[in-house]
Specification:
alpha/beta, Rossmann fold, 5-stranded parallel beta sheet, 18 helices
């Protein structure tokens, strides 16, 4: 190789490394510009990255590989062609519902990929005059590096996700398995357990009597300005004597199967005196999680992992082999590959859903355990721990049982209150409480945010009714007023 080409190649490598260092610096310390939305600066950085990379590649293609800079004008057009193609792909993905095309990182990565493919087409067209045929093989790798480099600045707009938020990727599964089950063994000797807001709560509170509020997004406080203080579990705690504390175990999108495992494997360690189960509408998702849970149990057995960290990786990446987990970690760290993977999984999920709907096989609850069996298991789990159980069917606007107006899962959701009443009649420590009467249709706009989620006033009204019910059952003892006070 001529000395001139070596010097030129060295200069290109140094310039490319300087660009990479600049990107890392910008990724770690984004500029605090309050007059622009957080997305503005990453867009600018990525555009500069794309232009700079195109310029470098032009010199690389023209000066080193082809031999003439003037003969490599075509890649310059990719500065405009790349973003246009990437945006077009994003629009198509959005239109077809295959993924999250408005993700800036994905659009920029697609733009850079389109630009790189243009370069590759140029290389193939000029393959007769190439100095190094290996450039045709190496170019896709360089394109991939460019795409990742242009997209990495967008990571500053999203807070890092904890590992338990990202396991079981693909589809639309609403389940934080690593947090809300003990598959990994993380709670075997735990002294602290996270609540619905990921606040760590001591397992043992010697001077407190624990009540667990178990439910879905209505229990969490979805839609409220301050769910931790406005949701009905917080309002219930304020309504009770000081020695009682209420643990918010509301999990948005969970069905009864997921909530049962949450109680059996995690919440039971809190040794609550009372569990209030406010649930109903999410039984439309009755089969979600059942096949996944069985598959993860099998994968964990095959992996022979003993440490919590290893078992968490199996749950997160869905592979019993060390090599499979390493490959999955690599894909997850790549903006481009992870976005492609997620879009492909969503696309497959939609095709399967459309086929099930077309063939009439969209029955909401078909896999065991069935709703009545789940409620029976919850009753048995609470009885084994000496815990009383209050079953409260979830209410929807204006004052009907939640979920009865849905098409998919209508039958299962509508029968949930009947199952609750049946289980309460079969177990002495279980009570059934219908709260529809406290929600007047005239006040629906004040009490409901939407069809099922409660406003702060609605949450307070529900908490007051539950508190009065617990007192009437003798499950709550008010503190006696000292004589002479």
């Amino acid at each position: 190789m001529p000395m001139k080409s070596v010097v030129r190649l060295g200069a290109i490598v140094i310039a490319f490394g300087a660009f990479a260092a600049l990107w890392v610096a910008m990724y770690r310390d984004p500029p605090p510009i309050s007059s622009y939305p957080p997305i503005a600066w990453p867009y600018r950085y990525s555009f500069v990255a794309l232009v700079g990379a195109v310029a470098l590649m032009r010199w690389l293609v023209g000066g080193l590989v082809v031999g003439e800079v003037s003969e490599s004008r075509l890649p310059v057009a990719a500065v405009l062609l790349g973003p246009l193609v990437g945006t077009l792909i994003g629009v198509v993905v959005r239109w077809r519902g295959w993924g999250d095309p408005y993700s800036p990182a994905l659009i920029v990565a697609l733009s850079a990929t389109a630009s790189g493919l243009t370069f590759w087409a140029f290389l193939i067209r000029r393959r007769k005059s190439l100095r190094f045929d290996a450039a045709l093989l190496l170019w896709p790798i360089l394109v991939f590096v460019l795409a990742e480099m242009c997209a990495v600045t967008f990571r500053i707009e999203v807070a890092p996700e904890p590992p338990e938020m990202r396991e079981v990727r693909g589809g639309k599964l609403r389940w934080r398995i690593a947090k809300d089950t003990n598959l990994s063994g993380r709670y075997d000797d735990a002294h602290l357990i996270p609540d619905a807001f990921d606040e760590l709560v001591p397992v043992n509170l010697p001077k407190k009597t624990r009540i667990v509020a178990l439910g879905t997004s209505s229990t969490y406080g979805q839609g409220l300005a301050d769910p931790a203080h406005e949701a009905w579990p917080a309002a219930l705690e304020r309504d009770l004597p000081e020695r009682y504390t209420v643990f918010n175990a509301g999990c948005g999108g969970y069905n009864s199967f997921q909530l049962l495992l949450y109680y059996q494997q995690v919440l039971v360690r809190l040794s609550p005196s009372v569990v209030v189960f406010y649930y109903g509408g999410n039984e439309a998702f009755g089969d979600e999680g059942k096949p996944v849970y069985a598959r993860l149990q099998k994968l964990l057995d095959e992996s022979k992992c003993e440490s919590v960290e290893c078992r968490l990786d199996v749950i997160r990446y869905g592979s019993p082999s060390r090599l499979g987990r390493l490959l999955s970690k690599g894909i997850e760290r790549s903006i481009l590959l992870d976005a492609y993977r997620q879009s492909l999984l969503n696309f497959i999920d939609q095709i399967r859903y459309a086929e099930r709907r077309r063939t009439g096989k969209l029955s909401p609850v078909r896999l065991p355990p069935l709703p009545l069996e789940i409620l029976g298991s919850l009753a048995e789990a609470t009885e084994a721990g000496g815990t009383r159980l209050l079953l409260v069917p979830e209410v929807g606007r204006p004052n009907i049982f939640a979920g009865t107006g849905k098409k998919d899962g209508e039958q299962a959701a509508a029968r949930e209150p009947d199952f609750m009443a049946q289980v309460a009649a079969e177990h002495p420590h279980v009570e059934y409480f219908d709260v529809r009467s406290i929600f007047s249709p005239e006040a629906a706009n004040r009490l409901f945010i939407d069809t099922t989620h409660l406003t702060a006033e609605g949450s307070t009204r529900l908490a007051r009714a539950i508190g009065e019910k617990l007192r009437s059952l003798g499950w709550i003892e008010d503190e006696k007023t000292p004589p002479g006070s």
